[in-house]
Amino acid sequence: MAMIVIGGMIGAGKTSLATLLGKALNSQVYYENVDDNHILPLYYTASEEEQERKRYPFLLQLDFLSSRYRDIKRAFYHPHNIIDRSIYEDWYFAKINHQAGKISDEEFIIYEKLLANMMEELEDLPKKAPDLMVYLHGSFECILDRINQRGREFEQDPELIEYYHRLWQGYDDWVDNHYHASQVLKISIDDFDILNKTDDAEKVIQMVEEKLSELGVPFDGYTKD
């Protein structure tokens, strides 16, 4: 049994990498709930007054936490799987929204209690933690370019750049100093373009396979295309 989680900034290419590895390693992929999330566009487009009144940031955080908890429970029972952003990163997004004043002190306390209860429940599952996080990182300019390229309308407002930068500037620190569930394989999106360059995609697949072998993680059940 092997589990890989994909981490990284908004727009870094997590879904593309999860799809790539899912095909290459013949693994189940659990995708982040974005397209069917009706709260997400409201989080980006609602006025400050409406967000304050309807508490969209807190509702969005709870919705993501619920879906990530569901996915990781399923993944811990599946022989081989890949998760497109996991429950481990959810706290970082909640913290950033709390620091920005979008989530109140009381809401953040409730969120942390709920997350702690969920993590305790995971201890009873057959597998306790991922085998590897593949972390996509890169320059802020590259992140913005990727966000623009994928063209989600609600992500394009220039006023969001400050939010993106706040997330970006603390992400490496979270991975280096706060994520302890597994070892991390870092891949620079400035150096590897898996979506448009076949050679880069093949190199990244090889890097992941080599890291799993180094960790002694069995993946004999994987079959390559």
What does this structure look like?
With 225 residues, the protein is an alpha/beta fold. It has one domain (2-214): Rossmann fold (3-Layer(aba) Sandwich). The protein has helices at residues 14-24, 39-45, 48-54, 56-75, 87-99, 105-122, 140-150, 161-177, 198-214, and strands at 2-8, 28-30, 80-84, 132-137, 183-188. The protein has a five-stranded parallel β-sheet, sandwiched between helices. Helix 4 (56-75) runs parallel beside helix 6. It is globular. 29% of the residues are buried. Mean pLDDT is 89; it is low at 221-225. One of its GO terms (cellular component) is cytoplasm. ATP binds at residues 8-16, 146-150. Belongs to the DCK/DGK family. It comes from Facklamia miroungae. InterPro entries: DCK/DGK, Deoxyribonucleoside_kinase, DNK_dom, P-loop_NTPase.
Briefly summarize what is shown.
Substrate binds at residues 32, 44, 61, 85, 90, 155. The chain has 225 residues and is α/β, with parallel strands linked by helices. The chain contains nine helices and five strands; from the N terminus they run E-H-E-H-H-H-E-H-H-E-H-H-E-H.
